[in-house]
Design a protein that fits this description.
There is one protein chain. This protein is mainly beta. Helix content is about 0%, strand content about 45%. The strands form five sheets. The protein has an eight-stranded mixed β-sheet with strand order 3-5-8-7-6-9-10-4, with no helix packed on it. Strands 20-26-25-22-23-24-21 form a seven-stranded mixed β-sheet.
Length: about 350
Amino acid sequence: GTPVATVSMTASFGAGSYPERATVEIPPAGTAQDFKLVTAGSPPAGTTIGGKTFRDGEIASVSFFEAFDLEQRACAGAKLAYRLIVGGQTIRKGRMESTPEDATLYRATVQPLRPNHGQARVQIDIEGCAGGGPPIRFDLYIDPSGLVRDLKGRPVAGATVRLLRSDLAAGPFGLVPDGSLIMAPNNRRNPDVTDASGHFGWDVVPGYYKVQAEKAGCKGAAESRVLVIPPPVLDLDLRIDCPYKPKLALGPLRRGTFAVSKRGKTRYRLANLSPFKVRGKVAVKVGRRTLGGGRFSLRANRPGDATVKLNRAGRRRLRKGRAVKVTVVVRARGAGGSKATARRAVKLRRR
């Protein structure tokens, strides 16, 4: 029953596949259109993105505004290198170095990917381990992200954002159901909530869309213009009248057994997920007793290391040659008096 026309068609299936899109010319005699759906590949066991694991077809997703840590487990003494590929072109590459917390954990810090966005492929090559094996490959979604900001352009964290869709530019527009295949596997939450930097984002099938944003304690709500997909919409900026309450967000604290030098020093990995500079302290404790600590300063939306130095009591405990169980306590401060505290049980051992 479709008339002679040029139409946009989309096919999708299940939580772990990318929607496939096509523009089709329909002649008077009709036509058929085949779709090849690509199964999304989660990072395998032993691979983390920004300290997070992704499983069962879930797509690893990163904001194109932010740097992130790429980590991979391999045998001690191996040589690892990564490549990040978009549209057949390598946009980032480099070596992965072993970490202070584990000689079998390798890390590279990938700088912000803007203006690249959309579906990408990560390849990790490993040399020097028994048995060899093919490169590790998995999918990555580079999220161009919209932003919710206040009237002065400052990020609004914790705002509720809703995605609405219509088949016609004039509407009517209805809320896309939570979990709908209209949204790609990297994010099928609707409504969603902005992060500490005010970011949000979806990858969607062709159509006409609007995005609404609101937050308790703010005046009114914001609604975007009609957004025509494709092409992708980049840097969507929604403004709402809110009091400025910056949110300080740290990435997940690292587990593991951290190697300590003879002088009692080690490094602890942190990640600042906030759009402003963060300063703070790291303390190493057993119960209420402090065994050492250090200070750190992290740029906006960047990971980095805090150098921790054990005091005499801490070094004395390590002389016995066994790993010591401790608690790492992180206290951070940022813009507008924002604070964050986090704890993680880890082990320390002599190098």
